[in-house]
Design a protein that fits this description.
163 residues; 5 helices; globular
Amino acid sequence: MSKGAQQPRAAFEPTDPDVDLAVPAQRRDLARGLGPVLAVVSLGGVIGACARYGANLLWPTAPGAFPWTTLLVNAVGCAVIGVFMVVITDVWAAHRLVRPFFGTGVLGGFTTFSTYAVDIQKFVAGGHVRTGLTYLALTLLTALAAVWSAVWLTRRALAWRQR
């Protein structure tokens, strides 16, 4: 076989990361596998972003004020992902599209790194460097504590239930 020739790929093989999208058959194979994933991530992202928008409507943050709503949304999202990951790995054999829909889509759309980063930038640009750094550290610690606590509590609840 010449250097540029493509070997046929079995249907069950994972897609090569070096797929040549100029080859119609490879492009079609890639789209067939990723199309449903992209669709459910998009749908979940819309749902999550709408939920985040709703949280901001219910608890608006005044310009220049500490962004408690964004901090709370990110902490809640991290706690939910902790519960979700335990459930789909330890309890429930989920369909292959559940994780991208809910984990990446819904929770990715709900939590917001971009708003968090912009809030920090605004604090620093406005001369409130200490507040920006506090927010940076507080969000990181809160998010890690939320996911860790949720995983721990979910596993304990499941262990207690199985007794």
